[in-house]
Amino acid sequence: MGNINKKISNQDDANVLLPIDTPFRFPSPLPTWPSGEGFASGIIDLGGLQVSQISSFTKVWASQEGGPDNLGATFFEPSNLPNDFFMLGSYSQPNNLPLFGWLLVGKDSSGDALKLPNDYTLVWNSKNLKIKQDGVCYIWLPIPPEGYKSVGHVVTTSPQKPSLDKIRCVRADLTDVCETDDWIWGNDVFNVYSSRPKDRGIKGLGVSTGAFMALNNGDAADSLACLKNVVENFSSMPILNQVQALFQAYSPLYYFHPDEEYYPSSVTWFFQNGVLLYTKGQESAPVLVQPDGSNLPLDGSNDGAYWLDLPTDDSAKNRVKNGDFHAATSYLHIKPMFGATHTDIALWLFYPFNGPARAKIEFITIPLGKIGQHVGDWEHITLRISNFNGELQSVYFSQHSGGNWVSAPQLEFENGNKPVAYSSLHGHACYSKPGQNMQGNGNIGIRNDTAKGQVMDTGANYAVVAGDYLKIVEPVWLNYAREWGPKISYDIANELKKIERFLPGKLKRAIEKLVKSLPNEVLGEEGPTGPKFKDMWNGDERS
After folding, report:
1. Per the record, which residues fall in region Disordered (predicted)?
2. 213, 194 in Cβ contact below 8 A?
3. pLDDT tens digit string along 268-307?
4. In whole angstroms, what is the distance from residue 150 CA to residue 142 CA?
5. What is the CA radius of gyration of the chain?
6. How many angstroms from the chain centroid is the CA of residue 441?
7. What does each C-alpha distance from 53 to 85, 204, 211, 255, 398 come to in angstroms?
8. Which residues pair with residue 102 across a beta bridge?
9. What is the pTM of this model?
């Protein structure tokens, strides 16, 4: 991972190295992937337009102020393009991270997929900006011919328009709608963002270009498009032995808190230890779930007609609650993303029980009694991998009703290129770093404590359970649409009374407001549905 080579103490010092001046490198070289189909071949055909992913850049301009951490941003154009490939846009990133980015460049394989722009429009320049900068920046928008669209900007340090031969516009049917993503740099009137396709998911055909999007206040975000894979095939996706090689290379190391009591297990272990299937109206006659889940109802939706619960015997119930760390299995869902130019490996862990939550009110930590407890807990992280070269680009850490993407330079790695993940105490939300991970506002919120206790190598025991293009035979339980736990019958008001009797008035009101604001995923009033019935199963992750 890239490091800051020199502590920044004086930004006027031209010799100071910023994080971006050190390109990110994985701790270990990438392996040679098994051969087969078009995965990691370097070029993907989108249907008359071939694209290649370029990570070699020529620096054009940089600011040393503004943006994340007020360290500025740097703008690049692609270099060392393969023969007959052309620039489609420019790259930018904040200076507070090691250089780690890419751009797609294009080759016309149909005769009319690419055309020169007719002209340029000046979007913005830094001439009147009172900041530390490398000269003056000019950002240009290509004006495409009729029937074509621009998918990126040109950046110069001269007020003269760039050469028309500098960039190419793309035939409109090979493009899709684009939207802004992460903020890169800017101010009150002008901002730069990374871009992504608006329609994302396993059926989405939009292709991310890696190019930035520059917008003045009031500008619509439709001046640029992304690309589109009109072929709709999966030849660039990894075949099964390539998926296995990818997961062995990048399988996360999962750390549990030293005080954790409720560990994951395999689904089979859960079923083998007395888990019961209840039917509405016949609550007095639950039936044991078969070890393979073959007697689970697979018709219908989450209609409340059926649910699972722990054994009725107290000793068996407590044993199942604690899970079985050694039997824990990583369940993998393999998803095409961005028009099959990327692969998402969604890694799901099953926990038989979710423990009680803890709140922090200013300097006081307060156990929340039964609040947060529920049977059955599905949590996941997702690895996003480039299909051009098999490089891990980012990891998504799910946290209750949301989560966040963390790029490779921001990850912690161990044992080569394996990213480190942390499971929060009792709640099992996923984080990239240890700490309290407060969920709430200011000094009031739910604590999601993470630290290094027991560690699970998720690559040691895993199963690929889903991947439509791979023709995977799914386990029966994956198609069980009902809840993996009962509706909890505890009285939240009563639980709050137990907590509040030790608190002064101000803190009582704060804790009441906090609990009322919690999503169902934290309150734990109902058991969760399985992975296949969550929005991100077919869509992109929520962030």
Report:
1. 521-543
2. yes
3. 999 999 999 999 999 999 999 999 999 999 987 889 899 9
4. 6
5. 26
6. 23
7. 11, 20, 11, 34, 28
8. none
9. 0.92
